Amino acid sequence: QLMRGIIIGVILVPTFLAASCIALQVREPETRSLRYSFTAALMVTAFLWIIVIANAIFIPGNHSLGGPDPLNQIFFIVTILMEVLVTCSFLMLNMARSQAELKESEERYRNLADNLPDYVLIHDGKFIRYANPAATLTGGSSSETLAGQPINSLISPADAGSSGEFIRALGSNGPPFPVSEIDIRLRDGTVRHCQVKTVRIDDAGIMAYLSVITDITERKTAEDALFRLNKKLTILSSVTRHDIKNQLMALSTYLELSKENLGNDPTASDYLTREMRIVQTMGHQIDFTRIYDDMGTTAPVWQNLDAGIRRAVAALPMRDVKVSVDRSDLEIYADSLFEKVSYNLIDNALKYGGDAMTGIRITCHETGTGLVVTCEDDGAGITGEDKARLFEKGYGKNTGLGLFLTREILAITGITITETGEPGKGARFEMVVPKGAYRFTGRK
Questions:
Q1: DSSP string, 359-397
Q2: CA–CA gap between residue 132 and residue 126 (Å, rounded)
Q3: Which pLDDT tens digit goes with each residue over 196-224?
């Protein structure tokens, strides 16, 4: 029993003393009194263990650890009291630290909110509970005067419809809440167009909303100006294109009449044929500007690849060439002109694949980066010299615009295209569709 008490004391005493030293070294003014109480209780307990163990070792005949003598009884009573004091001090110390950390965290986030240029509001969906200094531009002379005001008082009366949708969204939808755009009326009467992002929070035990309102007036003004300018350019381009095509049509008619009335002069006939070919090329180039104007003007949409290929096949002189698609349920998120990609690739194969070509295959497989859609034929293939400039504008035997347009249309939604076939073994075009831009509907 004596040995067991000595071993316990040898372990506990250094532990208590070490814990006391650590507690004294901590620099936390707000927990100073608790740390001193904690240290005192540990040191008293350690001191009592030293006295009792020393007494049991040096005066073994009088006392023994755990015996009924008064010293042992006093020791255990005081030890229990000290341990209770240590435990309470430890718990209170942790509580004080938690409160200090919470206060520090609140201070940090409040400083962040107070210095944000955006308007930050905490509200219950009807009335404002907190507003940062930036929000005082909207009304009131301080954050405190805004607290308690109806949130509708900040919104421009002319924007009642959008504000009503915003308020209804808070009441009917759970998080995440949709990003809204509303008009905010400032103190001086000016109206600013803003974007609102809202999350649900717990504010002192009460369910509330945190709304961050970002002023996007300048961006919106620039977007509107750009839209109006683009509209004017589109109208100008359309009118000019229409006028030029009318002139080309008239010129083509006169060239045809000239050729009919020319007689048998072979040189003049050759010149007229070349001139008519130039007129046709100019017509193709005018058509190209129309298609290029339409690219990216509408939002991308989900499009079924198989349906687009079937429409392209129906519009082209296929001869006896068969087209097969391995997945009829594949949809790709692409520009509205994506159907022209299928048309151009099949048309390109028909023009350059040769008479021996019998089939065109469209297959797909997933990789780590996305989906690879392959369009390959069993025709003549593409030479190494042509591969390097295949997608350049104007390169090719005809207008040189088909594959250039194909690449540009695909690039709008991040799809890349390359030619990976071997000369003499058929052309092979690989389109890499990024993750998120394709899906399988399961309707094969």
A1: EEEEEEEE-SSEEEEEEEESSS---HHHHHTTTSTT-SS
A2: 17
A3: 888 888 877 788 888 888 889 999 999 88
* 54 and 71 Cβ atoms separated by less than 8 Å: no
Peptide bond into 68 cis (omega under 30): no
Give the C-alpha separation, 339 to 321, whole Å. 20
* Alpha-carbon torsion angle 411, 415, 421, 427, nearest 10: -70
Q: Which amino acid is at 293?
A: D
Q: Which of 342, 341, 344 is nearest to 411 (CA)?
A: 341
Alpha carbon distance, N-terminus to C-terminus of the chain: 83
Range 400-404, long-range pairs (CB < 8 A, 24+ positions): 401/284, 401/285, 401/288, 402/344, 402/347, 402/348, 403/344, 403/348
The residue to which tokens 């035990």 are assigned: 205
432 alpha carbon, distance to own chain's centre: 21
Average model confidence (pLDDT) across the chain: 79
Q: Alpha-carbon distance 404 to 69, whole Å? A: 103
Q: Any idea what the Cα angle at residue 336 is, between residues 334 and 338, rounded to 5°? A: 60
In the prediction, which pLDDT does 390 show?
A: 85
The residue ranges of DSSP E strands in 204-349, in sequence order, are: 206-215, 301-304, 322-325, 330-334
Fold (topology level) of 301-440? Heat Shock Protein 90 (3.30.565)
State residue 371's pLDDT score: 95
- What is the C-alpha to C-alpha distance for residues 7 and 413, in angstroms, rounded to an integer? 74
pTM for this model (two decimals): 0.50
Residue 255 CB coordination number (10 Å): 16
Question: CA quadruple 99, 101, 102, 103: dihedral positive or negative?
Answer: positive
pLDDT band at 391 (very low <50, low <70, confident <90, very high): confident
Residue 174: strand, helix, or coil: coil
116-215 classified as CATH 3.30.450.20: yes
pLDDT at residue 310, as a whole number: 93
Whole-number Å distance between alpha carbons of 211 and 119: 8
- pLDDT tens per residue across span 117-145: 888 888 888 888 888 888 877 665 566 67
Comparing C-alpha atoms, which of 340, 351, 331 is closest to residue 292? 340
β-partners of residue 184 are: 155, 192
